[in-house]
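JOB MANIFEST
job_type = single_chain_structure
chain_count = 1
residues = 362
[input]
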Amino acid sequence: MGNTQDSVLTKLGQIDARYREIDAMISDPAVAKDSVRLVALSKEQGKLRSLVTKYRDYVKAATGAEEAEQMLHDETAEPDLKALVEEEIEQLNARKEQLLEEMQNTLVMADDLQIDAVILEIRAGTGGEEAALFARDLYGMYTRYAESRRWRVEQLDFSPSEMGGFREVIFSVKGEGVWAELGYEGGGHRVQRVPETESQGRIHTSAATVAVLPEPEEVDVEINPDDVIEHVCRSSGPGGQNVNKVSSAIKLEHIPTGITVSMQDEKSQHKNRAKAWRLLRSRLYELYESQRRAERDSQRKTMIGSGDRSSKIRTYNFPQNRVTDHRINLSLYNLDRILVGDMEELIAAIRDHDRQQRLKNL
């Protein structure tokens, strides 16, 4: 633990130094005139503030404990005074331990906590119509959980199936702590139940995949417009007369990476274009971030699983009312509650496991 503690305190010292540096920069008249830079610095400082406050409290407690220890070794001190000093040392050490634990937890999860918008993509996998109905159930589960957290949900695009399921649904969720809680949902989800389409009462297994992409602010990802080819075409599928007659569907192709996105949810070409750019920005951000993470984490594994859509992360078993998360070998027997958005226990268990792993890897 000693090495971990030393590395955490070294890192916190660097963050405190950066905070002081930003303070000095914000006070510089030249920076004050540059509103874009000033906003970026204020934002960075705001994200560091609570951690720096705790670190300074920790340093104060540590200094206080050291001074008290010296008094304890003073042979001329009265016994009554020594008893009070011992009590004070105990309190200061307890405060140090508490602050250190809080700071460690914040530090290992800091990158996640800074992202407050994500785009989720749910796609029906094997299982035909039943898989599309399962994709719809997952969409309902996430949107209800988002409502309980007072996050904002916006549907970006969807492709319905004949029985009211979703072949694909894409939506954004915005709010504090979104990525820190929903970032673990990426991967393969499997359902075991008697489908509505089954007359014999046999249990079937179907699947859906979920991708969770951090939605960056425009300043986080710069895309050269010359690198993007835009195709405009008519929307396909249901949507009444206007959708199919007017060329409103947008497809964007990012030449350097080969990433393409399509959007045809809105009747307005302008709205589809705006949504398509948001999705492209998110996919590029995720690509660049995963490359950066791969470089940074080549020596250590932080995330639970890879979030890869092909990896099976969770099974929803209806006959047993059970949800099993295979990454942490956790089974909860409250599937009915989880599907209506009561996901707190499940998400907390995964986050806690990930936090422990990250602490080990510090």
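[summary]
The CA atoms of residues 121 and 333 lie 26 Å apart.
Residues 239-244, 296-306 have pLDDT under 50 and may be disordered.
exit_status = 0
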